[in-house]
Fold:
Amino acid sequence: MNQQSDFGRYGMAVICLLAGAAIVALAAGVIPSDEAKFRAPHWVVGCAGGVFMLAGIMIALPPTILRVQQFLGAVLLSLFASIFGWIAFGPGPRAFSGSVSFGSISTAAPSDASAGRFVFGIAAVLIGLCAVFAWVKWLRALFAQSQGDAN
Structure:
């Protein structure tokens, strides 16, 4: 890699890491905030920050440490699925909106809460399945490596 692409890669990693850390700090109460402005539980907000932090770490890590990348990817997908799962299946009211664009013509309108939960539920299940696949892949590779070390 050249110096310019390394600069861009590490710059993006730092941006993701700092943004995620700020969100996690907000969720943990380290950064004071108005409770009335939270429209999700603190753990959901913390998961969103964790997704950004993990993305930043994964961008910064060299591709040569594949097992660590696979582990972090499985954690990232699990956090992401939990956010979508809360939106779809968690208690409380939800407000969704949708828009359709075709060229320069667009329209936007509020959507039914049931439809929004349905869409997020499908996404939660699909992302959750991807997370399960990532965990299985990581565990298989880990056990195959430990079997190779034992021989």
